Amino acid sequence: MQITFGASAPEDCQLIAHVVNQGETPVGLEGALAEGAVVARFKGKPGQVFEGFVTRDDVTYRIALAGLGEADSDDRTANLEKAGAALAAKYLRSGEKAMALSLAGAGLSADDATSVLLGLRLRSWRHDVYRTKLAEDKKATLEHVAVTASPDGTSTAWVEKAAIAEGSEFTRMLVTEPANKVYPVSFVEKCVAAFQGTGAELTVLDEDVMKQLGMGALLGVGQGSRQPSRLLAIRWNGGGDESPTVFVGKGVTFDTGGISIKPAAGMEDMKWDMGGAAAVAGGMLTLVKRQAKANVVGVVGLVENMPDGNAQRPGDVVTSMSGQTIEVINTDAEGRLVLCDALHWAQEKFAPKRIVDFATLTGAIIISLGHEHGGLFANDDDLADDLLKAGKDSGDKMWRMPIGPAYDKLIDSPIADIKNVGPRGAGSITAAQFLNRFIKKGTAWAHCDIAGMVWADKPGATWDKGATGFGARLIDRFVANTLEG
Ligand code: BES
Ligand code: MN
Ligand code: ZN
Question: Where is it found, in Gene Ontology cellular component terms (predicted)?
Protein backbone atom coordinates (compact mmCIF):
# COMPACT_ATOMS: atom_id res chain seq x y z
CA MET A 1 0.00 0.00 0.00
CA GLN A 2 1.18 3.44 -0.96
CA ILE A 3 0.74 6.33 1.47
CA THR A 4 1.20 9.80 0.03
CA PHE A 5 0.80 13.35 1.31
CA GLY A 6 -0.65 16.27 -0.61
CA ALA A 7 -3.72 18.46 -0.66
CA SER A 8 -5.53 17.00 -3.63
CA ALA A 9 -7.33 13.67 -3.65
CA PRO A 10 -6.37 11.16 -6.35
CA GLU A 11 -8.47 11.26 -9.49
CA ASP A 12 -11.62 9.15 -9.43
CA CYS A 13 -11.31 8.68 -5.69
CA GLN A 14 -14.78 8.16 -4.27
CA LEU A 15 -13.81 7.23 -0.75
CA ILE A 16 -13.15 10.01 1.74
CA ALA A 17 -12.28 9.27 5.35
CA HIS A 18 -12.17 11.50 8.41
CA VAL A 19 -11.11 10.83 11.99
CA VAL A 20 -13.29 11.82 14.93
CA ASN A 21 -12.65 11.90 18.67
CA GLN A 22 -15.21 10.19 20.87
CA GLY A 23 -18.07 12.52 21.76
CA GLU A 24 -17.07 15.21 19.28
CA THR A 25 -19.14 16.04 16.23
CA PRO A 26 -17.27 16.12 12.96
CA VAL A 27 -17.27 19.60 11.48
CA GLY A 28 -17.81 20.62 7.90
CA LEU A 29 -19.95 17.66 6.88
CA GLU A 30 -23.25 17.90 5.03
CA GLY A 31 -26.19 17.95 7.42
CA ALA A 32 -27.56 14.63 6.24
CA LEU A 33 -24.25 12.95 6.93
CA ALA A 34 -23.91 14.43 10.39
CA GLU A 35 -27.47 13.35 11.17
CA GLY A 36 -26.83 9.92 9.69
CA ALA A 37 -23.90 9.43 12.03
CA VAL A 38 -26.17 10.21 14.98
CA VAL A 39 -28.90 7.89 13.71
CA ALA A 40 -26.36 5.11 13.21
CA ARG A 41 -25.18 5.68 16.78
CA PHE A 42 -21.67 6.55 15.73
CA LYS A 43 -19.96 7.74 18.91
CA GLY A 44 -16.34 7.88 17.78
CA LYS A 45 -15.36 4.89 19.88
CA PRO A 46 -11.96 3.41 19.04
CA GLY A 47 -12.28 1.19 16.01
CA GLN A 48 -15.83 2.31 15.22
CA VAL A 49 -16.40 3.25 11.58
CA PHE A 50 -19.46 4.97 10.14
CA GLU A 51 -20.13 5.07 6.43
CA GLY A 52 -22.48 7.50 4.78
CA PHE A 53 -22.99 8.70 1.23
CA VAL A 54 -23.13 12.13 -0.31
CA THR A 55 -23.56 13.35 -3.82
CA ARG A 56 -21.41 16.33 -4.73
CA ASP A 57 -21.56 17.69 -8.28
CA ASP A 58 -23.32 14.54 -9.51
CA VAL A 59 -20.68 12.23 -8.07
CA THR A 60 -21.56 9.97 -5.16
CA TYR A 61 -18.90 9.54 -2.50
CA ARG A 62 -18.49 7.15 0.37
CA ILE A 63 -17.70 9.14 3.46
CA ALA A 64 -16.13 7.21 6.31
CA LEU A 65 -15.81 8.45 9.87
CA ALA A 66 -13.31 6.57 11.99
CA GLY A 67 -13.55 6.82 15.78
CA LEU A 68 -10.41 7.66 17.74
CA GLY A 69 -11.82 7.23 21.24
CA GLU A 70 -11.31 9.87 23.90
CA ALA A 71 -8.56 12.40 23.28
CA ASP A 72 -7.07 11.94 26.77
CA SER A 73 -7.26 8.15 26.89
CA ASP A 74 -4.31 6.25 28.40
CA ASP A 75 -4.56 3.97 25.40
CA ARG A 76 -4.43 6.82 22.93
CA THR A 77 -1.68 5.40 20.70
CA ALA A 78 -3.29 1.97 20.52
CA ASN A 79 -6.65 3.60 19.80
CA LEU A 80 -5.21 5.69 16.99
CA GLU A 81 -3.74 2.56 15.43
CA LYS A 82 -7.05 0.85 15.91
CA ALA A 83 -8.82 3.60 13.99
CA GLY A 84 -6.46 3.22 11.05
CA ALA A 85 -6.76 -0.55 11.25
CA ALA A 86 -10.56 -0.36 11.25
CA LEU A 87 -10.48 1.74 8.08
CA ALA A 88 -8.17 -0.79 6.45
CA ALA A 89 -10.34 -3.72 7.50
CA LYS A 90 -13.45 -2.08 6.10
CA TYR A 91 -12.06 -0.84 2.81
CA LEU A 92 -9.20 -3.17 1.91
CA ARG A 93 -11.46 -5.35 -0.24
CA SER A 94 -14.17 -2.77 -0.87
CA GLY A 95 -13.47 -2.28 -4.55
CA GLU A 96 -12.06 1.18 -3.87
CA LYS A 97 -8.53 1.67 -5.12
CA ALA A 98 -7.82 4.88 -3.28
CA MET A 99 -8.82 6.59 -0.06
CA ALA A 100 -8.54 10.29 0.61
CA LEU A 101 -7.85 10.58 4.31
CA SER A 102 -8.04 13.72 6.40
CA LEU A 103 -6.15 13.59 9.66
CA ALA A 104 -6.90 17.19 10.53
CA GLY A 105 -9.60 18.49 12.84
CA ALA A 106 -9.19 16.08 15.74
CA GLY A 107 -6.34 17.95 17.41
CA LEU A 108 -3.80 15.26 16.59
CA SER A 109 -0.06 15.77 16.78
CA ALA A 110 2.06 14.67 13.83
CA ASP A 111 3.09 11.59 15.79
CA ASP A 112 -0.58 10.80 16.57
CA ALA A 113 -1.42 11.10 12.90
CA THR A 114 1.28 8.62 11.95
CA SER A 115 -0.14 6.14 14.47
CA VAL A 116 -3.37 6.12 12.47
CA LEU A 117 -1.36 5.51 9.31
CA LEU A 118 0.64 2.74 10.93
CA GLY A 119 -2.58 0.97 11.94
CA LEU A 120 -3.87 1.34 8.42
CA ARG A 121 -0.74 -0.04 6.86
CA LEU A 122 -0.26 -2.95 9.28
CA ARG A 123 -3.89 -4.04 9.08
CA SER A 124 -3.81 -4.11 5.30
CA TRP A 125 -0.75 -6.36 5.12
CA ARG A 126 -1.51 -9.76 3.69
CA HIS A 127 0.40 -12.64 2.16
CA ASP A 128 -1.64 -13.78 -0.82
CA VAL A 129 1.30 -14.99 -2.91
CA TYR A 130 0.13 -18.61 -2.99
CA ARG A 131 -3.55 -17.83 -3.61
CA THR A 132 -3.80 -18.19 -7.38
CA LYS A 133 -7.58 -18.58 -7.40
CA LEU A 134 -8.61 -15.80 -5.12
CA ALA A 135 -12.18 -14.70 -5.92
CA GLU A 136 -12.50 -11.15 -7.21
CA ASP A 137 -14.32 -9.93 -4.13
CA LYS A 138 -11.65 -11.39 -1.84
CA LYS A 139 -8.83 -9.57 -3.54
CA ALA A 140 -7.40 -6.49 -1.92
CA THR A 141 -8.22 -3.41 -3.97
CA LEU A 142 -7.11 -0.52 -1.80
CA GLU A 143 -3.69 0.48 -3.09
CA HIS A 144 -3.34 4.09 -2.23
CA VAL A 145 -4.06 6.20 0.83
CA ALA A 146 -3.74 9.88 0.03
CA VAL A 147 -3.44 11.96 3.17
CA THR A 148 -5.07 15.19 2.09
CA ALA A 149 -4.85 17.07 5.37
CA SER A 150 -2.68 16.41 8.40
CA PRO A 151 -0.83 18.19 11.22
CA ASP A 152 2.47 19.86 10.31
CA GLY A 153 5.34 17.40 10.22
CA THR A 154 3.23 14.30 9.60
CA SER A 155 4.97 13.25 6.41
CA THR A 156 8.40 13.58 8.07
CA ALA A 157 7.26 11.67 11.14
CA TRP A 158 5.88 8.98 8.89
CA VAL A 159 9.37 8.07 7.68
CA GLU A 160 10.18 6.57 11.10
CA LYS A 161 6.82 4.89 11.46
CA ALA A 162 7.13 3.42 7.98
CA ALA A 163 10.36 1.77 9.15
CA ILE A 164 8.34 0.13 11.93
CA ALA A 165 5.85 -1.09 9.36
CA GLU A 166 8.62 -2.50 7.18
CA GLY A 167 10.19 -4.38 10.08
CA SER A 168 6.85 -5.80 11.23
CA GLU A 169 5.97 -6.85 7.72
CA PHE A 170 9.31 -8.59 7.29
CA THR A 171 8.68 -10.49 10.53
CA ARG A 172 5.19 -11.44 9.41
CA MET A 173 6.36 -12.60 5.99
CA LEU A 174 9.05 -14.84 7.50
CA VAL A 175 6.57 -16.29 9.99
CA THR A 176 3.88 -16.88 7.37
CA GLU A 177 6.05 -18.54 4.73
CA PRO A 178 5.87 -22.34 4.99
CA ALA A 179 8.86 -24.44 5.99
CA ASN A 180 9.55 -25.65 2.43
CA LYS A 181 10.19 -22.01 1.53
CA VAL A 182 11.79 -20.67 4.69
CA TYR A 183 14.53 -22.99 5.96
CA PRO A 184 17.88 -21.95 7.45
CA VAL A 185 19.63 -21.17 4.16
CA SER A 186 16.68 -19.30 2.65
CA PHE A 187 16.05 -17.40 5.89
CA VAL A 188 19.60 -16.09 5.56
CA GLU A 189 19.06 -15.26 1.88
CA LYS A 190 15.93 -13.28 2.64
CA CYS A 191 17.82 -11.32 5.28
CA VAL A 192 20.72 -10.68 2.91
CA ALA A 193 18.24 -9.27 0.40
CA ALA A 194 16.34 -7.19 2.96
CA PHE A 195 19.47 -5.63 4.47
CA GLN A 196 21.21 -5.08 1.13
CA GLY A 197 22.63 -1.58 0.92
CA THR A 198 21.48 -0.55 4.40
CA GLY A 199 24.91 -0.44 6.03
CA ALA A 200 24.16 -3.36 8.33
CA GLU A 201 26.89 -5.98 8.50
CA LEU A 202 25.79 -9.62 8.12
CA THR A 203 27.86 -12.59 9.25
CA VAL A 204 26.83 -16.16 8.42
CA LEU A 205 28.27 -19.24 10.10
CA ASP A 206 27.83 -22.56 8.28
CA GLU A 207 27.96 -26.02 9.84
CA ASP A 208 31.73 -26.45 9.39
CA VAL A 209 32.46 -23.24 11.24
CA MET A 210 29.94 -24.06 13.95
CA LYS A 211 31.53 -27.49 14.38
CA GLN A 212 34.96 -25.88 14.81
CA LEU A 213 33.49 -23.58 17.40
CA GLY A 214 32.04 -26.56 19.25
CA MET A 215 28.36 -25.75 18.91
CA GLY A 216 27.30 -29.33 19.61
CA ALA A 217 23.92 -28.37 21.05
CA LEU A 218 22.69 -26.38 18.05
CA LEU A 219 24.19 -28.82 15.55
CA GLY A 220 22.66 -31.77 17.41
CA VAL A 221 19.20 -30.40 16.70
CA GLY A 222 19.94 -29.82 13.02
CA GLN A 223 21.61 -33.17 12.38
CA GLY A 224 18.32 -34.96 11.69
CA SER A 225 17.47 -32.65 8.81
CA ARG A 226 18.57 -32.49 5.18
CA GLN A 227 18.57 -28.73 5.58
CA PRO A 228 21.92 -27.48 6.85
CA SER A 229 21.89 -25.25 9.94
CA ARG A 230 23.07 -21.66 10.02
CA LEU A 231 23.87 -18.93 12.51
CA LEU A 232 23.30 -15.39 11.31
CA ALA A 233 24.41 -12.15 12.94
CA ILE A 234 23.12 -8.76 11.83
CA ARG A 235 25.15 -5.87 13.20
CA TRP A 236 24.26 -2.19 13.18
CA ASN A 237 26.67 0.39 14.58
CA GLY A 238 24.66 3.56 14.77
CA GLY A 239 25.86 4.61 18.21
CA GLY A 240 29.15 5.55 19.83
CA ASP A 241 31.88 3.26 21.17
CA GLU A 242 29.76 1.43 23.74
CA SER A 243 29.39 -2.35 23.60
CA PRO A 244 26.27 -3.39 21.72
CA THR A 245 22.93 -4.60 22.97
CA VAL A 246 22.35 -8.05 21.51
CA PHE A 247 19.07 -9.70 20.55
CA VAL A 248 19.04 -13.46 20.00
CA GLY A 249 16.27 -15.37 18.24
CA LYS A 250 15.16 -18.99 18.10
CA GLY A 251 14.92 -19.91 14.45
CA VAL A 252 13.58 -23.45 14.26
CA THR A 253 12.23 -23.27 10.73
CA PHE A 254 10.17 -26.38 11.39
CA ASP A 255 9.75 -28.30 14.62
CA THR A 256 8.50 -31.85 14.18
CA GLY A 257 9.76 -32.58 17.67
CA GLY A 258 12.46 -34.83 16.21
CA ILE A 259 12.52 -38.43 17.49
CA SER A 260 10.30 -37.25 20.38
CA ILE A 261 7.87 -36.53 17.57
CA LYS A 262 4.85 -34.29 17.97
CA PRO A 263 1.27 -35.47 17.27
CA ALA A 264 0.02 -34.79 13.71
CA ALA A 265 -2.85 -32.49 14.70
CA GLY A 266 -1.68 -28.92 14.58
CA MET A 267 1.89 -29.77 13.66
CA GLU A 268 1.63 -27.37 10.70
CA ASP A 269 1.80 -24.55 13.24
CA MET A 270 5.41 -25.43 13.83
CA LYS A 271 6.36 -23.58 10.66
CA TRP A 272 6.28 -20.51 12.88
CA ASP A 273 8.72 -21.91 15.40
CA MET A 274 11.16 -19.39 13.96
CA GLY A 275 9.04 -16.51 15.27
CA GLY A 276 11.77 -15.39 17.67
CA ALA A 277 14.32 -15.21 14.86
CA ALA A 278 11.79 -13.39 12.68
CA ALA A 279 11.13 -10.86 15.46
CA VAL A 280 14.85 -10.21 15.79
CA ALA A 281 15.32 -9.89 12.01
CA GLY A 282 12.31 -7.57 11.69
CA GLY A 283 13.28 -5.51 14.72
CA MET A 284 16.78 -5.08 13.32
CA LEU A 285 15.35 -4.10 9.94
CA THR A 286 13.31 -1.34 11.56
CA LEU A 287 16.34 -0.06 13.48
CA VAL A 288 18.49 -0.08 10.38
CA LYS A 289 15.84 1.53 8.17
CA ARG A 290 15.35 4.36 10.59
CA GLN A 291 19.12 4.65 11.19
CA ALA A 292 18.84 4.12 14.94
CA LYS A 293 21.50 5.88 16.98
CA ALA A 294 22.49 2.72 18.81
CA ASN A 295 24.86 -0.22 18.60
CA VAL A 296 22.80 -3.37 18.24
CA VAL A 297 23.26 -6.90 17.01
CA GLY A 298 20.67 -9.51 16.09
CA VAL A 299 21.80 -13.13 16.26
CA VAL A 300 19.58 -15.94 15.04
CA GLY A 301 20.14 -19.68 15.34
CA LEU A 302 18.56 -21.42 12.36
CA VAL A 303 17.84 -25.14 12.31
CA GLU A 304 15.16 -27.58 11.23
CA ASN A 305 14.17 -30.19 13.82
CA MET A 306 13.50 -33.43 11.90
CA PRO A 307 13.56 -37.13 12.74
CA ASP A 308 15.77 -38.90 10.20
CA GLY A 309 18.28 -41.76 10.56
CA ASN A 310 20.92 -39.32 11.74
CA ALA A 311 18.67 -37.50 14.19
CA GLN A 312 19.75 -37.23 17.80
CA ARG A 313 18.09 -39.63 20.24
CA PRO A 314 16.54 -39.07 23.64
CA GLY A 315 19.34 -39.72 26.12
CA ASP A 316 22.10 -38.45 23.84
CA VAL A 317 24.67 -36.23 25.50
CA VAL A 318 25.93 -33.24 23.54
CA THR A 319 28.62 -30.70 24.34
CA SER A 320 27.69 -27.05 23.94
CA MET A 321 30.11 -24.33 22.85
CA SER A 322 30.32 -23.21 26.48
CA GLY A 323 31.80 -26.62 27.34
CA GLN A 324 28.77 -27.61 29.41
CA THR A 325 27.40 -31.04 28.56
CA ILE A 326 23.67 -31.57 28.03
CA GLU A 327 21.59 -34.70 28.33
CA VAL A 328 18.90 -34.51 25.65
CA ILE A 329 15.95 -36.10 27.43
CA ASN A 330 13.40 -34.87 24.90
CA THR A 331 14.37 -33.91 21.36
CA ASP A 332 11.28 -31.67 21.22
CA ALA A 333 12.83 -29.32 23.78
CA GLU A 334 15.13 -28.17 20.98
CA GLY A 335 14.79 -24.41 21.15
CA ARG A 336 16.91 -24.11 24.27
CA LEU A 337 19.60 -26.27 22.63
CA VAL A 338 19.75 -23.86 19.71
CA LEU A 339 19.66 -20.78 21.91
CA CYS A 340 22.34 -21.91 24.36
CA ASP A 341 24.98 -21.98 21.63
CA ALA A 342 23.68 -18.79 20.00
CA LEU A 343 23.69 -17.01 23.37
CA HIS A 344 27.17 -18.22 24.23
CA TRP A 345 28.59 -17.26 20.85
CA ALA A 346 26.96 -13.85 20.99
CA GLN A 347 28.46 -13.14 24.43
CA GLU A 348 31.93 -14.25 23.33
CA LYS A 349 31.82 -12.29 20.12
CA PHE A 350 30.13 -9.04 21.12
CA ALA A 351 30.62 -8.79 24.92
CA PRO A 352 27.20 -7.19 25.35
CA LYS A 353 26.13 -5.48 28.55
CA ARG A 354 22.59 -6.57 27.83
CA ILE A 355 21.34 -9.57 25.90
CA VAL A 356 17.68 -10.34 25.20
CA ASP A 357 16.42 -13.49 23.54
CA PHE A 358 13.11 -14.12 21.78
CA ALA A 359 11.74 -17.61 21.32
CA THR A 360 8.60 -19.62 20.76
CA LEU A 361 10.07 -21.78 23.47
CA THR A 362 7.29 -23.55 25.35
CA GLY A 363 3.67 -24.56 25.00
CA ALA A 364 3.52 -24.03 28.76
CA ILE A 365 3.74 -20.23 28.41
CA ILE A 366 0.47 -20.37 26.46
CA ILE A 367 -1.10 -22.20 29.39
CA SER A 368 0.21 -19.49 31.72
CA LEU A 369 -0.47 -16.30 29.77
CA GLY A 370 -2.61 -17.24 26.77
CA HIS A 371 -2.33 -14.86 23.85
CA GLU A 372 -2.30 -11.57 25.73
CA HIS A 373 1.26 -11.33 27.00
CA GLY A 374 4.61 -12.84 26.21
CA GLY A 375 6.45 -14.32 29.19
CA LEU A 376 9.43 -12.32 30.42
CA PHE A 377 12.25 -13.87 32.44
CA ALA A 378 15.27 -11.85 33.53
CA ASN A 379 18.29 -11.87 35.82
CA ASP A 380 18.20 -8.07 36.06
CA ASP A 381 15.33 -5.91 37.32
CA ASP A 382 16.23 -2.80 35.33
CA LEU A 383 16.37 -4.74 32.10
CA ALA A 384 13.06 -6.40 32.91
CA ASP A 385 11.44 -3.04 33.66
CA ASP A 386 12.74 -1.57 30.42
CA LEU A 387 11.26 -4.46 28.45
CA LEU A 388 7.93 -4.26 30.26
CA LYS A 389 7.77 -0.55 29.47
CA ALA A 390 8.73 -1.03 25.84
CA GLY A 391 6.04 -3.68 25.67
CA LYS A 392 3.40 -1.30 26.97
CA ASP A 393 4.54 1.51 24.71
CA SER A 394 4.65 -0.62 21.58
CA GLY A 395 1.64 -2.84 22.19
CA ASP A 396 3.81 -6.01 22.29
CA LYS A 397 2.92 -6.71 25.91
CA MET A 398 5.06 -8.81 28.24
CA TRP A 399 4.46 -10.17 31.74
CA ARG A 400 7.26 -11.02 34.13
CA MET A 401 7.67 -14.55 35.42
CA PRO A 402 9.96 -15.79 38.22
CA ILE A 403 13.30 -17.57 38.04
CA GLY A 404 15.56 -18.78 40.84
CA PRO A 405 17.75 -21.53 42.30
CA ALA A 406 14.84 -23.76 43.34
CA TYR A 407 13.80 -24.03 39.70
CA ASP A 408 17.37 -24.28 38.50
CA LYS A 409 18.12 -27.48 40.33
CA LEU A 410 15.23 -29.21 38.55
CA ILE A 411 17.36 -29.47 35.41
CA ASP A 412 20.42 -31.14 36.96
CA SER A 413 21.25 -34.32 35.05
CA PRO A 414 22.52 -37.56 36.55
CA ILE A 415 24.89 -38.11 33.61
CA ALA A 416 25.73 -34.64 32.27
CA ASP A 417 25.94 -31.05 33.56
CA ILE A 418 22.35 -30.27 32.68
CA LYS A 419 19.32 -31.92 31.09
CA ASN A 420 17.09 -30.25 28.55
CA VAL A 421 13.76 -30.78 30.33
CA GLY A 422 12.58 -30.58 33.91
CA PRO A 423 9.52 -32.14 35.56
CA ARG A 424 5.97 -31.47 34.32
CA GLY A 425 5.36 -28.29 36.28
CA ALA A 426 6.82 -24.85 35.56
CA GLY A 427 7.87 -25.84 32.06
CA SER A 428 8.46 -22.29 30.86
CA ILE A 429 10.52 -21.46 33.93
CA THR A 430 12.79 -24.49 33.73
CA ALA A 431 13.30 -23.65 30.04
CA ALA A 432 14.41 -20.16 31.13
CA GLN A 433 16.67 -21.66 33.82
CA PHE A 434 18.32 -23.74 31.12
CA LEU A 435 19.18 -20.61 29.14
CA ASN A 436 20.32 -18.83 32.30
CA ARG A 437 23.10 -21.40 32.73
CA PHE A 438 24.69 -20.07 29.56
CA ILE A 439 24.72 -16.43 30.62
CA LYS A 440 28.02 -15.05 31.90
CA LYS A 441 28.24 -13.45 35.33
CA GLY A 442 27.70 -9.71 35.03
CA THR A 443 25.70 -9.87 31.82
CA ALA A 444 22.14 -8.61 32.10
CA TRP A 445 19.93 -11.10 30.31
CA ALA A 446 16.25 -11.38 29.55
CA HIS A 447 14.31 -14.11 27.81
CA CYS A 448 11.01 -13.52 26.05
CA ASP A 449 8.92 -16.64 25.55
CA ILE A 450 6.58 -15.54 22.77
CA ALA A 451 5.04 -18.90 21.83
CA GLY A 452 1.53 -17.52 22.41
CA MET A 453 2.07 -14.28 20.54
CA VAL A 454 3.50 -14.77 17.06
CA TRP A 455 0.44 -16.37 15.49
CA ALA A 456 -3.23 -15.49 15.93
CA ASP A 457 -6.27 -17.53 15.00
CA LYS A 458 -8.47 -14.46 15.32
CA PRO A 459 -8.25 -10.94 13.92
CA GLY A 460 -6.48 -8.59 16.32
CA ALA A 461 -5.54 -4.95 16.71
CA THR A 462 -3.41 -4.61 13.62
CA TRP A 463 -3.73 -7.96 11.89
CA ASP A 464 -6.39 -10.05 10.26
CA LYS A 465 -5.41 -13.60 11.18
CA GLY A 466 -2.06 -15.33 11.18
CA ALA A 467 1.30 -13.71 11.80
CA THR A 468 1.12 -10.80 14.24
CA GLY A 469 4.68 -9.50 13.83
CA PHE A 470 5.08 -9.66 17.61
CA GLY A 471 8.50 -8.70 18.91
CA ALA A 472 9.75 -6.47 16.12
CA ARG A 473 8.10 -3.37 17.55
CA LEU A 474 9.12 -4.33 21.08
CA ILE A 475 12.76 -4.41 19.99
CA ASP A 476 12.45 -1.09 18.19
CA ARG A 477 10.86 0.63 21.17
CA PHE A 478 13.23 -0.93 23.68
CA VAL A 479 16.17 0.48 21.72
CA ALA A 480 14.50 3.87 21.31
CA ASN A 481 13.71 4.10 25.03
CA THR A 482 17.00 2.81 26.43
CA LEU A 483 19.73 3.64 23.94
CA GLU A 484 18.53 6.66 22.06
CA GLY A 485 16.72 8.41 24.96
N1 BES B 1 8.23 -25.02 19.66
C2 BES B 1 7.77 -25.69 20.81
C3 BES B 1 6.94 -24.79 21.73
C4 BES B 1 5.61 -24.36 21.18
C5 BES B 1 4.48 -25.12 21.41
C6 BES B 1 5.49 -23.18 20.50
C7 BES B 1 3.25 -24.70 20.93
C8 BES B 1 4.27 -22.76 20.03
C9 BES B 1 3.14 -23.52 20.24
C10 BES B 1 8.95 -26.22 21.60
O11 BES B 1 10.06 -26.56 20.85
C12 BES B 1 8.48 -27.45 22.29
O13 BES B 1 8.18 -28.39 21.63
N14 BES B 1 8.44 -27.40 23.61
C15 BES B 1 7.98 -28.48 24.38
C16 BES B 1 8.90 -28.64 25.56
C17 BES B 1 8.72 -29.91 26.29
C18 BES B 1 9.17 -31.09 25.45
C19 BES B 1 9.53 -29.84 27.56
C20 BES B 1 6.55 -28.18 24.83
O21 BES B 1 6.25 -27.02 25.08
O22 BES B 1 5.76 -29.09 24.87
MN1 MN C 1 9.97 -28.54 20.14
ZN1 ZN D 1 10.30 -25.64 19.07
Answer: cytoplasm
